[in-house]
Design goal:
Layout: H1 21-49, H2 60-88, H3 98-141, H4 153-162, H5 175-189, H6 198-212, H7 216-271, H8 274-277
Amino acid sequence: MMIDTVVVAPGGGSPVAGVSWPSIIAGAVAACAMTLVLLAFGTGLGLSVVSPWAGSGVSATTFKITTGLYLIVIAMISSSIGGYLAGRLRTAWEGVHADEVYFRDTAHGFIAWALASVLGAAVLASPATSLIGGTAAGVSQGAVTSAAQSSGPMEGYVDTLLRSDPAAQNSNGNPADARGEVVRLFTQSFRNGGELKAADRDYTAKVVAARTGLSQQEAEKRVNEVVTQIKADVDAARKATASLAFWITASLLLGAFCASLAATEGGGLRDGTWKRRR
């Protein structure tokens, strides 16, 4: 049986600080750099496996799952490297019990992971917010910011509503006015998960009938179909955002674990105690 020799410094404490910030910062920076490298590689890999052509590339479900798994792989690799460096480069602790050294190494890896996560969030906050926010709310809230805006996600739905045979187009009035009114009506109604009111639905159907030459019943049917499509797209965006959030949470938790474990390995190899710990 191997007995650890403990030398206690005067005053009952360690002669050196319990936290080695230079090693933690070095590990966090290395983890962030490796994350950026793997993200760039993953972006290129993802673009190479998707295709706008039918029957080419991977399916949407496969792409989502693969993306989530790759996020976990990125977190595990980058966190392990950062944690290992934080443990291997830290200042030696003389006169500290083996259990305390193990705890400090674990804490160094965890703090390095936390610092890397904060730095990564600060660097990627703006593009990540735009991406996730645009995915979740682009359909329901990003149509137009003013009546004069000529393009937006809601424009496609209005195109579907007002599509007609050129021979049946109504020549009375300004078509742009009716279109702008419907865009504003839809944007206001579907903001924050709202619903198109019965009066607004009837009015929209009348506008569609006047613009397209459809009967009132056919116009109402088209309005209902487009409203259903809007809700389906919003729900799909919500589910995609929720799924992405769960994958990110899993990757962060696994990253914290890998960083802490790798730091204990780095510290143990530095002190020559890794095999005894195992």
